[in-house]
């Protein structure tokens, strides 16, 4: 029974801790203190809930407990100057149970707090690595060891990133406020980028023994869905959610029983999650209703939707995918997007059309050590029966790949090409 309660507490913590830290951050204006007070409330829950049971509103219970701890701390350290007296008064005034109307108002306040916390965790004074670590810690509810395991990093490295991130925010005196309107679009792009980076590391791990890490995809999806609730009028937020839902729908088919990668053309589409596909298509439609769907995430989601709607790789609307990549490439020029466009061109107009573009990309310095360029060239060369060249490309791709299952797959493809010479 106690084990079940602890599992429930863990689930509640994952859901409620971002709201809890965000609400406390508004009151105490200190990330370290807010997180510490939230952890204190969790400890009390672990002590009491196994005996008393999980309360009907565990989030409100945790918040009330954290506020009590904040008041006790203020009094214990005799910090009741005018500022802290006001803070203590505000905390005391919120102690009592609230009715449904007040609860709705509190939920709105917590939503505002949560949105502010998202923008703080992804503040431009922080490096991308620090933004990712702090976002997963404060908004994903992950512990430092969990973040370290997810990214295959030493725990001290992750702990240092989090500590330094908090210090950087404090040194820069970053206010607990939303960005000014003239900075909002740029800052939102940064937030979306961090969430999608987390998702991508789960969808196609850059290193390690697993090709996918579904837990990271789930964390990113949860963050994206929360952001969509908090910013319902932003098309690109819904575009990102649509993209992640549609890509996540394939997770069950992306690996075989032995954990080996299964590429898109070879996947059993019966294993795709149609609930996630439905959610993704709905999010994409919502983005469309809000305006012109020309943002990079919405365009990528539209490409993913073409795959989701098709019964097979051959029946996919490849000309439309090429057109979408054309638009995406104009909007955000990128050699990686061009490489993806080469694949689409090959499917729409034959492998030589794709290889012609892929060959041009060999001159791009940014792709010099990108394993997917030789992997794509190897695939296209094999389709053109140029098996000796394909073998060399697959071997080069394997040497560059950091992910072990992907490396083995590339070496297998090199061996198959060698057998065809």
TrEMBL record:
Domain DUF6596: 187-287
Residues covered by the RNA polymerase sigma-70 region domain: 17-78
InterPro entries: DUF6596 (IPR046531), RNA_pol_sigma-70_dom (IPR014284), RNA_pol_sigma70_r2 (IPR007627), RNA_pol_sigma70_r4_t2 (IPR013249), RNA_pol_sigma_r2 (IPR013325), RNA_pol_sigma_r3/r4-like (IPR013324), WH-like_DNA-bd_sf (IPR036388)
One Pfam entry name: Sigma70_r2
Cleaved signal peptide residues: none
Source organism superkingdom: Bacteria
Ranges where the RNA polymerase sigma factor 70 region 4 type domain occurs: 118-169
Protein name per UniProt: RNA polymerase sigma factor
